Amino acid sequence: MNNFLQQAIELSKKSIEQGGFPVGALVVKDEVIISEGLSDGKNRKDATSHAEIEAIRNASIKLDTRDLKGCEVYSSMEPCLMCFSACYWAKITKIVYAVGKDKLSKQHYEGLHSIENINTENNRQIEIIHIKELENEALSLIQDWEKNLR
Q: What DSSP string runs through 79-105?
């Protein structure tokens, strides 16, 4: 699990290098990487171009289905409400992330929602795992990116 999350953090570095937002994501099925995603909404001029959304879109194309049951999303940052909802509608089984939203400035999330609370009210729950051992590494990338914006 940590290996895939580490790769998502590496993708966040790639996203920064390409002028995107510091988030990377993977879709994994049966311990095999199906797709990757970078957060590139600024360059693409697309508010929905988050890393998790891109990884889901790419996985759906590769697997030729919108039903990603049995797939897992690994993200360097806790998914926003849009990305969590996309995971739900794609039938993603598990979400694993590094940086929790409580560690980030409010500019990264809209509202006070909690994906954990929303998850408990859904018809089908997604397993959500926060890997805190990799949080500082991913957080440091985000904080450096924020400093360079100023």
A: --HHHHHHHHHTT--EEEEEE-GGGS-
DSSP 66: S
**Token representation of residue 72:** 């897992």
User: Looking at residue 58, what is its pLDDT?
Assistant: 98
Task: Judge contact between 16 and 38, C-beta under 8 A.
Answer: no
* Catalytic-role residue among 36, 52, 54, 78: 52
Residues 6+ apart with CB under 8 A from 133: 2
Among candidate residues 27, 24, 26, the one with its CA nearest the CA of residue 9: 24
- Summarize pLDDT for 110-149 with one digit per residue, the tens: 666 788 988 999 999 999 999 999 999 999 999 998 888 7
SS3 content of the chain, % helix, strand, coil (to 5): 50, 25, 30
Nearest to 73 by CA among 121, 35, 16: 35
Q: Is 52 a catalytic residue?
A: yes
